[in-house]
């Protein structure tokens, strides 16, 4: 076998126990009281994040306990069960592990259609329903939310942004008696728009703060240009943990692995918003790829337009947008190459998926870009944010300078146009040179601090 999969096995410790002890000390954990880390939500990235921690620290059972919560009752369909069986039999290490744990027979029965498997059940054996092709290490899975979170020291939010508020409102009931509040690391990329009292963006960390009362100092965002399955397979990757210095620096050190470098940054909300923004344009990229038979030229034309719109939008959102250019482009690039939002755009354009199927897709999870299209369009349509149109010399809503975003809204949300409209938008003779849009952004004072809830 070409690659070494650790699957929870004891690796050389290279300072792991010291790192764990250091972090436990920072939290004031007494001997015999394990550091309790809980993942909430078991999508691809949430599951991989828990598995990385389990592989790294799971051997120190007296000192750390890693668990993941997911809802019970989600059945695995027959086709997925058949595919899962193939994956198991193609990996000798996984096959041996399941036989050793007396867990293999249920996969045989599911393959034959004699048994129904459930998502929480297979996750215990290391199979994430959204990422069947990448077996993880076995995980401790809890399906009762109260049991999972009530005494957690670190909670990792692996939920889609669209579910974050609801679940954390429930969690807040279980934390009423707590003396100290946990640290929360949010992996969610996505935003909501709010129009009162002024148009502004609400991010997952802000939703968590409002739902639970946990201070923003203890809520962090972790994101970066990465594909979950590749990170688990030890492809070299990096990410940023953003938030208050007191926790982001020790967490960056605690989470860092030889193949997964974690940097830290103070700019929490802007990085979170950028993570949502690239999903918008990834859907369009998938459509262009499918409609032009993967034409490199068409894709590059689209890339020029979508990056110019993203740069324009970052000038509305950030006082120093130049600092965001690298991380945003890297995250956009990897999402266009292999992300689920680009895949979704492709499937829509090919007619293999329809909008009526919703934005939670079997085997892929939540397509975050759809709700992000609606949120950004709604926000940037507000007349209170008007900017001066360079040619017409009159005030217009910012969305009027973002034709790709407008077109995606008409395809995905109002449904007044088909996927073909994205090509029409690219071929529009009246479309400004993308360079001009960037120049407009750079030469005008567009920054609107109120958009991110700043005074």
From TrEMBL:
GO cellular component, as recorded: cytosol
Glycerol-3-phosphate dehydrogenase NAD-dependent C-terminal domain segment(s): 267-421
Presence of the UniProt keyword Cytoplasm in the record: yes
Residues of the Glycerol-3-phosphate dehydrogenase NAD-dependent N-terminal domain: 139-239
UniProt keywords, alphabetically: Cytoplasm, NAD, Oxidoreductase
Reaction(s) this enzyme catalyzes, per UniProt: sn-glycerol 3-phosphate + NAD(+) = dihydroxyacetone phosphate + NADH + H(+)
Enzyme Commission number, as recorded: 1.1.1.8
Gene Ontology terms, MF aspect: glycerol-3-phosphate dehydrogenase (NAD+) activity; NAD binding
Superkingdom of source: Eukaryota
Location in the cell: Cytoplasm, Cytosol
InterPro entries named among the record's database cross-references: G3P_DH_NAD-dep_C (IPR006109), G3P_DH_NAD-dep_N (IPR011128)
GO term, biological process aspect, one: glycerol-3-phosphate catabolic process
Cytoplasm recorded as keyword: yes
Family: Belongs to the NAD-dependent glycerol-3-phosphate dehydrogenase family.
Protein name: glycerol-3-phosphate dehydrogenase (NAD(+))
Organism ancestry: Eukaryota, Viridiplantae, Streptophyta, Embryophyta, Tracheophyta
